[in-house]
Amino acid sequence: MDIHTNIPLKNYLTMKIGGNARFMTEVHSREELAAVCENAKSKNIPIFIIGGGSNVIARDEGYEGLVIRIRIPGFEIISEDDSSTTIRIGAGENWDSVVKRSVDMKLSGIEAMSGIPGTAGATPIQNVGAYGQEIADTLQSLEAYDLETKSFVTMQNSECGFSYRDSIFRSSSAGRYIITSITIVLSKYMPKPPFYDSLQRYLDEKQIKIFTPDIIRNTVLEIRKDKLPDPAVQPSAGSFFKNAIVDKWQAEQLKPSYPDMPMFEMADGRFKIPTGWLIEKTGLKGQLINGMRISPNNALVLINESAHSYDELAKARDEITIKIRDMFRIQIEQEPLEM
Ligand code: EPU
After folding, report:
1. Catalytic residue among 102, 108, 239, 295, which?
2. Best mutation site among 239, 275, 335 for ligand 1, i.e. most ligand atoms within 8 A of its Cβ?
3. Number of domains into which the chain is organized
4. Are residue 22 and residue 81 in the same domain, yes or no?
5. Is pLDDT at 116 greater than 90 in this prediction?
6. Which of 111, 143, 312, 335 is catalytic?
7. N or C: less crowded end of the chain, CB within 10 Å?
């Protein structure tokens, strides 16, 4: 396999910002991955993994190590019964192609996660989710290369530490495992209403009353077209911030001052507040800060209109974060990972 040197990261990341990777390579199999990792580890070269590059931000100084692009293919039905089909998917598969294939097979479980850029292997890292589904709902297990023990491990769903936009792969075990495949269980039954708020509203408006995986996929693609920029046309990293999670006491304190603030109670009793709403209230929606446009269609998305450096992006991010902290006493968090 070829190892390239001094490669501009901005060519591989959808935000189109970032300096050079000292080394970069692509791997197409588990064996190739294990070999390249052992080689790098023996030389003490740090490793960073990218899939589609749509949820990673690089700094101007770049990455003084080896960036591995995972291209491991695979889409294999491993078992099936009357109600479900279990599929193992190579980490390098394009996620939306996987969704399309499963929908074509009339399976449900990931159809609402249509149109999300990136690769299948990246979905567990931040527990990717959209329109009421998240990968934690369908993931049975995954296989990963463990850089510490230099061996492949199988991890069950319960071992991944999934929560809202989080898993052990970006928290307690960050940098330790490299996902090589995911195994998901999809249902042969039709998707059932009620659906996620904005999806349900759209279905109602269009008077859609039959819900097949295909209809849900197409509806989500329609909604996304207006709300989320196509990274191939407008550089961005999707949602740039996570939604805010606050304790019950804080939600109760905010309610009288902002009676129209949307709040969703979570299973653990805390409340999720849409950061897009908070940003909109600061008046920043649609504005341009240091070349970064706060999307006029969705305040959670930062579009790189003319920024060339991480510093410009960071200044825009910090300005938004501070405004929200001052106005609501809420500390919002960046969603994309940083190299
Ligand atoms: N809102 C506003 N103004 C805005 C944007 C949102 O007021 O400019 C409020 C509205 O009240 C709206 C609520 O936020 O009802 C929720 O908005 P939406 O349904 O568009 O979703 P989101 O919370 O902004 C999350 C995910 C998206 C995912 C959508 C749809 C996160 C960080 N983002 O966004 O995921 O597509 O839900 O399910 O959880 C991503 O992670 O990159 C991503 C695009």
Report:
1. 239
2. 239
3. 3
4. no
5. yes
6. 335
7. N
C-alpha 212 to ligand 1 mean position (Å): 23
Looking at the fold, whether 256 and 332 belong to one and the same domain comes out as yes
**What pLDDT does residue 226 have?**
87
Query: Quick one: CA dihedral 43, 337, 119, 272, positive or negative?
Result: positive
CATH number of the domain that residue 82 is part of: 3.30.465.10
Quick one: 183 and 89 in the same domain?
yes
The verdict on whether 239 is a catalytic residue reads yes
CATH number of the domain where residue 244 is located: 3.90.78.10
Q: What percent of the chain has pLDDT over 90?
A: 99
User: Is 254 in contact with 238 (CB distance < 8 Å)?
Assistant: no
pLDDT more than 70, % of the chain: 100
Domain that holds residue 146: 75-187
3-state DSSP call for residue 17? coil
CATH code where residue 37 lies? 3.30.43.10
φ, ψ of residue 137 to 5 degrees: the values are -70, -30
Active site residue 83: no
Q: Which of 165, 217, 293, 317 is catalytic?
A: 165
Nearest C-alpha neighbor of 219 from the set 78, 337, 331, 115: 115
Report field, pTM of the whole predicted structure over 0.90: yes
What's phi and psi for 225, nearest 5 deg?
Answer: -55, -40
* Residue 163 annotated as catalytic: no
Please state the atom number of ligand 1 nearest to the C-alpha of residue 165: 39
